[in-house]
Amino acid sequence: MDWLIVSLVFAFVIAFGLLALTAIVSAWRTPDLAWRGSGRTRRGTVALVAFTGGLGGLHYWLRIRPDLVGLASSADQATAPTKAEMRAIAAQRSLGG
After folding, report:
1. Model pTM?
2. Do residues 34 and 75 lie in contact, with contact meaning Cβ atoms separated by under 8 Å?
3. CA distances from 39 to 42, 82, 92 (A)
4. Which of 13, 16, 59, 88 has its CA at 20 to 30 Å from residue 7's CA atom?
5. Alpha-carbon distance 37 to 73, whole Å?
6. CA-to-CA distance for 89 and 67, rounded, in angstroms?
């Protein structure tokens, strides 16, 4: 029974480590324009994920990354949309429009 608990804890630690690692790599490779448009910094986000591990990675994937993806898709435009515009887009998507 002890080996089962140890193996589950080990799998949990590995999964959270991979979650944090993929978040750091994704954050580092995101275009600068998306970071400027979102009002966040790349260095701050990478530091957050590095210091908080899997929970920071989870926060990145669920809260930060969706904003950045919306902004990165508009990277070919001269300016990124403002936060108010992104909120309006998110509200339209949540209404199904």
Report:
1. 0.64
2. yes
3. 10, 9, 21
4. 59
5. 12
6. 11
